[in-house]
Amino acid sequence: MATMPALTQPSPLKRLHRLHMLSLCLLPLLTACDNHDTAHKQTEPRPVIVMKAHTQPVSDTIEALGTAQARESVTITASVAGRLDEISFTDGQAVHKGDVIARMDQDEDKAQLTAAIAQLSEHQREIKRLQALLARKAAATRDLDERKTLAAVTASNIAQIRARMSELTLTAPFDGRLGIRRVSPGALIQPGTVITTLDASDAIDIDFSIPSTRLHGLQVGDHIQATTDARPGEIFNGKLSVIDSRIDPITRSILLRSRIDNHQGLLIPGMLMRVTLTTAPHEALVVPEECITQKQGEHFITLVTSDGKAEIRPVQTGLRHHGMVEISQGLKSGEQVVVRGMGFVKAGKPVTISTTWTDIDHSNEPLADEAR
């Protein structure tokens, strides 16, 4: 009976050799396929989101802290020592210029004034009598001159007494609203003792300082907005009214004053105010800040040309505000600026516009590639 020859298994070394040879044969085919796919992807236009460059009003803004002050403000005090005889106001009362606020004791001055007026009347009567006698040559001219001198001295004394009484009568120097009374009738007060305060707060002045380097383009009449924590959510508009004539040599800052209408009485002197000053308003081309790339101190934007290709162009930037940046040079109105996807494109390569923004409100919208 014939026997079948035994089957021999290839050694492990021979199997590895065969697999290696097979991989060498397949490698060119795989590489060719991969290169074909890569080349196809590179030539395929990349999707981008663009926004047309447009003009809009822009302006420089300066922020600072300031203090609210009344248009006119004064502390009512006595200029001489004495007893406070009368208080003619209530706390918080509105007064007009010339209204009596308080009176100090004037009894002695009133008595002196009465005596001086009587003495002046006597001198005037004597002058008339002497003039009549002199007309008949029955009196000497010297006697008439002496009497006229005495009358003039008495009139001067009367003026001094009335001036002293005026100092003892405290009146409102301007229209405004009085504060809280600090003393009571009968109190002995000294010069400088505070009786009350008077503020004309129909208009509020806000004093604030800015660095002297921000003075360029600043003009009286520039618009300001002010807010305060005491009135959350409310914005008060006004104008820059005064620019100080000097720069502080220590802080290198300059004091500014703005005025805000306050006829409604919403603002009180002493409030801390946050001021935003708007300067140099003008029309300018703007694009979203995320369009700008920077390299070695230069700024660049990516554009989609009329033939659908990408262009990388250097530009000069200006003011930045609310996510937008001013392009002062290098861009024309209506050109399509790439907002999203500039990292996927190369200059001169074709691109596909997936979305065109009209404003910056779509900042959370992803590209199609990014979504996948």
Automatic annotation (TrEMBL):
UniProt cross-references to InterPro entries, sorted A to Z: Beta-barrel_RND_2, MdtA-like_BSH, RND_pump_MFP, YknX-like_C
Domain CusB-like beta-barrel: 207-280
Coiled-coil spans in chain: 113-140
GO cellular component: efflux pump complex
Multidrug resistance protein MdtA-like barrel-sandwich hybrid domain span: 73-193
Annotated ranges, domain YknX-like C-terminal permuted SH3-like: 284-353
Pfam family, one: BSH_RND
Keyword Coiled coil part of the UniProt annotation: yes
Keyword Isomerase: no
Domain of life from the UniProt record: Bacteria
GO molecular-function term, one example from the UniProt record: efflux transmembrane transporter activity
Keywords per UniProt: Coiled coil
Similarity remark: Belongs to the membrane fusion protein (MFP) (TC 8.A.1) family.
Name listed for the protein in its UniProt record: Efflux RND transporter periplasmic adaptor subunit
